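Notebook p. 47: complex prediction with adenosine-5'-triphosphate.
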Amino acid sequence: MGEIILQAYAKINLGLDVLRKREDGYHEVKMIMQRISLADTLVLRKCPGGGILLQGDTETDVSGVPMDASNLVYRAIQMLKEEFQLEEGVEAVLTKRIPVAAGMAGGSADAAAALKGMNQLFSLGLSEQELRDRGVKLGADIPYCIMGGTALSEGIGERLTPLPPLPSCHILIAKPPVSVSTAFVYGNLRVDELLEHPDIDGMTEAIRQGSLQGVIDRMGNVLETVTIPAYPEIAVIKSIMLEYGAERSLMSGSGPTVFGIFPDEAKAMQAEQAIRKAGYAEQTYLVQPLL
Ligand code: ATP
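Predicted complex, structure tokens below:
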């Protein structure tokens, strides 16, 4: 087998709740994850020498992403190379399109693609569940990125319930030019002091019933209570989206990316232009939910 080309899709959180902080420091979450049509590309091939060679594609800007042994792609390849004592080398070329440190699980998506790609390239015969069990050791969102689609994610992200696809809609993504550390956001979250929790059970039910309106009515993210005070431009982007006709807008993950759900593409494009013109975000994308 020569070369494997994989798309590593980003996610947004239609709903994100934190239930408690566990004794081991992890937070117990309850989230609705949605795969979207924005992806990095990862190419994997065997190479002589036995090592791991990871490079960024010259087409995109990979500054801000370490291309060394700390990259999640490198760590995923290394994990399977060690476990299966694979002697051949692996060359990986990563084209980054998903905004980095943005709340879109870019690194986790890349790691998920690397695990799947290694499974194929070396015919390891691992099932999806076996890949997910390995993925969670590298990052809590990786099991979901392996599964994709629409899902309820619980525990620290490893307990996944697949849901029916979200009804089709137009989603505008806007990432302001700040990087947010997930550790900073969770570190400053006061779970006991949260005044509101999104109704994740109700959202799960709405998805099962195919009701986009039911989902929109319940969108909420408790991490906004930490990230928005630190980066008020997030609130401004949310309100521009609403002003231009979004049914609802929300921060994804730990931020700072904002997404809005629009009834039609024309309104989403107008909102995109307004956000860009006002200088709040250069990284904007019009996307659809994916299976
Ligand atoms: P999440 O939604 O899971 O919180 P995120 O979008 O906030 O993820 P990432 O883009 O995954 O954050 O990256 C967070 C950090 O992880 C980066 O600042 C970078 O140093 C490191 N990293 C390691 N591997 C990768 C990768 N393949 N792509 C992007 N970042 C990576």
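Notes: Residues 65-66, 71-73, 100-108, 110, 141, 182, 253-254 surround adenosine-5'-triphosphate (CB under 6 Å). The chain is about 30% helix and 30% strand.
Next step: compare against the earlier run before touching the bench.
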